[in-house]
Amino acid sequence: MTAGRRLATAISLVLAALLLGRLSWDVHAVRMILALACCLVLPGLGWSRRMRLRDAGDTLALAVVLSISASVVVATAMALAGQWSTVWGTVVLLAVAGLGFVPSRTLQRLSPVPARSPRRAAVAGLGAADPDWVDWYADARRRSAAARARADAEARAIETQWADWYAREGGGMCPEPVEGRWSVP
Fold first, then answer.
1. Most-buried pick from 7, 66, 89, 180 (CB within 10 A)?
2. d(CA 151, CA 63)
């Protein structure tokens, strides 16, 4: 550790100790800091954990964004309704936070409409207009899989041709077209 880094660490520790000493005498400041931290993290934490991001920093950043968004939505709704209440706003934010930590399967079980019911499909607009939407969806998935398989086969053929050409020629010109398309070196 360099001397400058040691000095910066020592100054940071002294400032942290002074801050903690000051906060230990002022209960209201501690309450305010804890309330701010809870409002910035708690409402979105459960929802951001559902995303299963690999990085904890990304999860925390998403939690802060979702928490601020939820707070703004609740505050806007209360302001538009003309019913400003700190207690009810806190209750709604706690409900949002609590629902974020409830497992998805439990929420589906509590739903009045089962996940695979015709009513839910009609609500989504899938079963009302065309009763054969399930067949259409399955056909679209098959066509998509076939197109993906063709593209993968073409990419493998181009890669093989490129590798063969490069081994033969050693560079310089583009290889011959494969099925009417040119590969890009």
1. 66
2. 39
pLDDT (tens digit, 9 = 90+) per residue, 35-75? 888 888 888 888 888 888 888 889 899 999 999 999 999 99
The backbone torsions φ and ψ at residue 66, rounded to the nearest 5 degrees and listed phi first, read: -65, -35
- 47/72 Cα distance (integer angstroms): 16
Region of poorest pLDDT, from 17-21, 47-51, 55-59, 95-99? 17-21
**Closest C-alpha to 158, from 146, 176, 173:** 176
Enumerate the H helices of the chain as residue ranges: 3-25, 27-50, 56-81, 86-101, 104-110, 118-123, 133-169
What 8-state DSSP symbol labels residue 55? -
Q: Which two tokens stand for residue 40?
A: 């910035």
For 19, other C-beta atoms within 10 Å of its C-beta total 12
What confidence tens digit (pLDDT) does each residue in 163-172 have? 776 666 655 5
**What contacts 45, CB < 8 A, 6 or more positions away?**
63, 67, 97, 100, 101
Q: What is the pTM of this model?
A: 0.47
Residue 182: pLDDT band with limits 50, 70, 90: low
What's the residue count for the chain? 185
CB 50 within 8 A of CB 104: yes
Q: Is the pLDDT of residue 157 over 70?
A: yes
